[in-house]
Amino acid sequence: MNEKAVFENANFWRKGIIQLTESMTEKELDTIPEGFNNNPRWNIGHVMAVWDRVITSSLGESSQLPEHYKELFMKGTSPQNWSDEIPRKEELISQLEIHNQKMQQIASGKLDEPLGFELYHIQSLKEAFLFLCAHESMHLATAKAQQQAMP
């Protein structure tokens, strides 16, 4: 798979999560439906936080997200512990768009490089992009299920 196809795959899933975010109200983004331990806002932010951690760490770059996103959205965090500093819907949408572009810009021409650290079975930056697309699609599906589970 060439770079253009890898980036188009990332764009496809990112477009889906942006459309879902646009379709939800602030209240829906913050609702934790019965049977779930987080909310759609967490799933959306988590996608960016993981992309950022994997790609920037691999390339020796600094984070491309606001600093507090790690504290809000990385594995092990919970919306039940949030303060008032959560990103609002419009900020999430803007970050989703900008961050996707930044990840592709810093990775352009480097997809065949080794990942540089152990992450499951992943060997190269290209494989990391494909894994992160699958991860994003899973969290998109979870956020959609949460939306459908709301009264």
UniProtKB/TrEMBL annotation:
Domain DinB-like as annotated: residue spans: 18-142
InterPro entries with a match to the protein in the record: DinB-like, DinB/YfiT-like
Protein name as it appears in the record: DinB-like domain-containing protein
